[in-house]
């Protein structure tokens, strides 16, 4: 099988037709590959590019399709929260749905209390941890909705998975990072800096520098871990769709390769949301913990 990597040119949207023409395959195979990879913006298909499409411009601020995807995820979460909020009752007997969410809330809060060793801290950071998990989870799953990436305005795809854009994962990481450092100063005051700048001995000084580098490296590790897993998942789904099309074009074998792959990637989406949220929680614990602990 020949894998063609399309490098975007000036407008980041051109497909290398000359490469396809050079592939020694039947016209049906070439057509299948084009359809699966979204070759040409005038046709549908799964659209995989490293740089997001710009769908609008507000002054010098570009509105990308991944940003639009994040807005859709946010609106969806807001609508669900509004609907569920209207069903919550503070008087009388709560329904099964309310009992379920109250039990889930208590379970998560108890776990966070065990990790942070403080009920007060757990209640304070619960909104952040829960929001990060829910937003990343929903944003990861939206791209598997049929037609999500097929809406085209001009030459740009309107929607794209938010976490397939490094800018979005970096923004989420910066939010988590700033919160972690702020909570560290709030809990320990200026003594929090002793974790990174300790002049009591040469060994402690170098250990502090290592801690500082480790702290800053979280900006890279958290953002690239999430981006890499979700972006790679898109490519794996693309290859599964392409393989299915190739087998049907050549051998007429109707094997549903994309189905198990999509199910697997949906599991990865939930897993990566949990990893990001849990790592943020553990980093908060490390930041707010006394150095003498």
Written account of the structure:
The chain has 293 residues and is mainly alpha-helical. 65% of the residues lie in helices and 4% in strands. The chain has one domain (57-288). The protein has helices at 17-22, 27-37, 65-87, 96-116, 119-142, 166-188, 202-251, 258-288; strands at residues 54-58, 61-64, 152-153, 156-157. The strands form 2 sheets. A two-stranded antiparallel sheet has the order 1-2. A two-stranded antiparallel ribbon has the order 3-4. Helix 4 packs across helix 5 (119-142), helix 6 (166-188) runs parallel beside helix 8 and helix 7 packs antiparallel against helix 8. Residues 1-26 and 32-45 have low confidence and may be disordered.
Quick structural gist:
With 293 residues, this protein is mostly helical.
Q: What is the spatial order of strands in the main beta sheet?
A: 1-2
Radius of gyration computed on alpha carbons: 24 Å
Tally of strands: 4
Tell me, what's the shape?
A: globular
Which band does the percent of strand residues land in?
Answer: under 5%
Low confidence ranges: 1-26, 32-45
Query: Total domains, how many?
Result: 1
The main β sheet shows up as:
2 strands, antiparallel
Averaged pLDDT, please?
82
Q: Helical residue percent?
A: 55-70%
Separation, N- and C-terminal Cα atoms:
57 Å
* SSE topology string: HHEEHHHEEHHH
């Amino acid at each position: 099988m020949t894998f063609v990597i399309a490098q975007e040119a000036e407008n980041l949207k051109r497909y290398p037709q000359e490469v396809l023409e050079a592939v020694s395959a039947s016209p049906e195979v070439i057509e299948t590959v084009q359809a699966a990879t979204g070759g040409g913006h005038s046709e549908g298909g799964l659209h995989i590019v490293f740089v997001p499409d710009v769908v609008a411009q507000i002054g010098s601020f570009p509105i990308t399709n991944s940003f639009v995807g994040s807005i859709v995820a946010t609106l969806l979460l807001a609508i669900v929260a509004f609907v569920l909020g209207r069903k919550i009752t503070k008087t009388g007997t709560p329904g099964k749905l309310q009992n379920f969410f109250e039990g889930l809330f208590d379970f998560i809060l108890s776990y966070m209390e065990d990790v942070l060793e403080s009920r007060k801290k757990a209640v304070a950071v619960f909104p952040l941890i829960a929001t990060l998990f829910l937003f990343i989870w929903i944003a990861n799953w939206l791209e598997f909705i049929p037609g999500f990436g097929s809406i085209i305005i001009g030459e740009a795809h309107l929607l794209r998975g938010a976490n397939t854009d490094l800018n979005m994962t970096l923004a989420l990481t910066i939010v988590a990072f700033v919160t972690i450092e702020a909570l560290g100063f709030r809990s320990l005051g200026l003594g929090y800096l002793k974790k990174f700048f300790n002049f009591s001995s040469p060994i402690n000084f170098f250990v502090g520098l290592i801690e500082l580098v480790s702290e800053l490296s979280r900006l890279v590790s958290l953002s690239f871990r999430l981006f890499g897993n979700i972006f790679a998942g898109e490519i794996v789904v693309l290859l599964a769709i392409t393989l299915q099309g190739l087998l049907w074009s050549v051998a007429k074998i109707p094997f549903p390769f994309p189905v198990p792959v999509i199910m697997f990637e949906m599991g990865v989406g939930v897993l990566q949301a949990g990893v990001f949220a849990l790592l943020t929680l553990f980093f908060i614990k490390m930041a707010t913990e006394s150095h003498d602990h």
